[in-house]
Structure formats: C-alpha cells, structure tokens
Design goal:
The complex is a heterodimer of chains A (113) and B (115).
Chain A (H helix, E strand, L loop, with lengths): L3 E4 L2 E5 L4 E7 L6 E7 L6 E7 L4 E4 L2 E6 L4 E6 L8 E11 L1 E6 L3 E6 L1
Chain B lengths: L4 E3 L2 E4 L5 E6 L6 E7 L6 E7 L2 E4 L8 E4 L6 E5 L8 E8 L9 E2 L3 E5 L1
Classes of the chains: A mainly beta (113), B mainly beta (115).
C-alpha cells in the first residue's frame, strides 16, 4: 500500500522567513496531494492541493511543488506569520474504486516573533 | 455551508467498556470517512462509505470496531470493548464524491480517553 514520509517533524522559523516541508510517497499511482493545517485542538483544514498533471501551484503565501519522477512534493510558506504556527500534514491519494488518502506524520511549525 | 458535525467532543471511559461516536456529514456529500488520529501522528483511515455502502474497511479492527451509515447520511462508529490503545481523536470527514480526487472536509473530532 501507499506510504507517505514527511520531514521535518518539527520546524521553527523566525517571523517573516520562509518554511519548507517535504514529503515523499511510494505509490506511483498517486495522483492527488493535499496539504492540511491543524491547529491545536481543531480539525484539519485543507490549505492547498495539487494534482499529478501539475508541477506547481501557488496561493498567496503558500505554494506546493510536485516531482512525480522522484515521488516527492513540498509545501512552501513565505513571509511566515505567527498565525502560521500549527501542525501541517501532507497526504497522497489515489483512486482504487474510491479515493484513498494516506497522511504523513505531520510537521509542527512554530513561528518565532 | 454547515460543516461536518461530530458528537460527543470528548469521552472518557474505562477499558472494556463500549463507546459510540456520531457524525453528520456536509449535506449532499456521498462519501464519509472515519479516521483515527493518535497523538503526534497523522490521521489513519478506518472505514470509508460511499452512500450507505462500505468501500474500504481494510484497516478497521473488526473484532472490536463497527460502523454503519444506514440511510447514507449520518454515521456511527462503535468500539466494544475498548482497549487502552484506542485512546485517540476520532475524526469524521466527508467529500462530495469519493470516486474522484475531491476535497475531504473534516469534523472537529471526538477525543477518546480509555483508562
């Protein structure tokens, strides 16, 4: 089955700097890669996603890149702000009768003022 | 639009007791998912429904866990009997059509503590 590895497990950056979180996946059939943000005690919320026919997608300060050949994808947050502090999860999905989503272990991002 | 609703938000039980969680997905969403999220880990899929049928329950510990979605809307997840290792947050999610790569929306979760 699919396996998703996420690094680093914790990341601390100064406010205004950039943050990068990386994920690798094992199943070449995966074709959908969402990123979720989960604040303490809250539900995971989708922040950006990318499909396998696209190499990069950007939404304001957030961007995701996908390298299908290497089977890895990354989340980039620029001009970080204190409200970006949270746990971020990557996931990989493929269709086998129905969409199957496998999550990474999560990255705890802390923005230092 | 209203989001995914779950209840209760918190539950504390002793081992070997039973517990049930309830989920109401976003209106019109055909696909409903139950995930288990152990502290410090990503969500792990337990079971997935397409309308009122199960499409994937390969990671559901069927000797103690059961779930149903009788009318293709609300769903309940039950644990009987509970073990210490079942302590986790149980997340319900829904999507418009699980047969395509569309967004999964999560509920607030139920935090279960087994003593």
């Amino acid at each position: 089955g699919e396996n998703v590895e996420q690094h680093p497990s914790t990341l601390s950056v100064q406010e205004g700097d950039s943050a990068v979180i990386k994920c690798t996946y094992s199943d070449s059939a995966s074709n959908y890669f969402p990123w979720y943000k989960q604040e303490l005690g809250k539900r995971p919320q989708l922040i950006i996603d990318i499909r396998s026919n696209v190499g990069e997608k950007k939404d304001q300060r957030i961007a995701v890149t996908l390298n299908k050949t290497a089977k890895h994808f990354s989340l980039h947050i620029t001009e970080t702000q204190p409200e970006d502090s949270a746990v971020y999860f990557c996931a990989a999905s493929w269709i086998q009768g129905a969409q199957k989503l496998v999550f990474g272990q999560g990255t705890r991002l802390t923005i230092n003022p | 639009e209203a989001g995914v609703a779950q209840s209760p938000r918190y539950k504390i039980i002793e081992k070997r007791q039973s517990v049930a969680f309830w989920c109401n997905p976003i209106s019109g969403h055909a696909t409903l998912y139950w995930y288990q999220q152990i502290l410090g880990q990503g969500p792990k899929l337990l079971i997935q429904f397409q309308n009122n049928g199960v499409v994937d329950d390969s990671q559901l510990p069927k000797d103690r866990f059961s779930a149903e979605r009788l009318k293709g809307v609300d769903s309940t997840l039950k644990i009987q009997p509970a073990k210490l290792e079942d302590s986790a947050v149980y997340l319900c999610a829904s999507s418009l059509d699980g047969r395509s790569a569309d967004t999964q929306y999560f509920g607030p979760g139920t935090r279960l503590t087994v003593l």
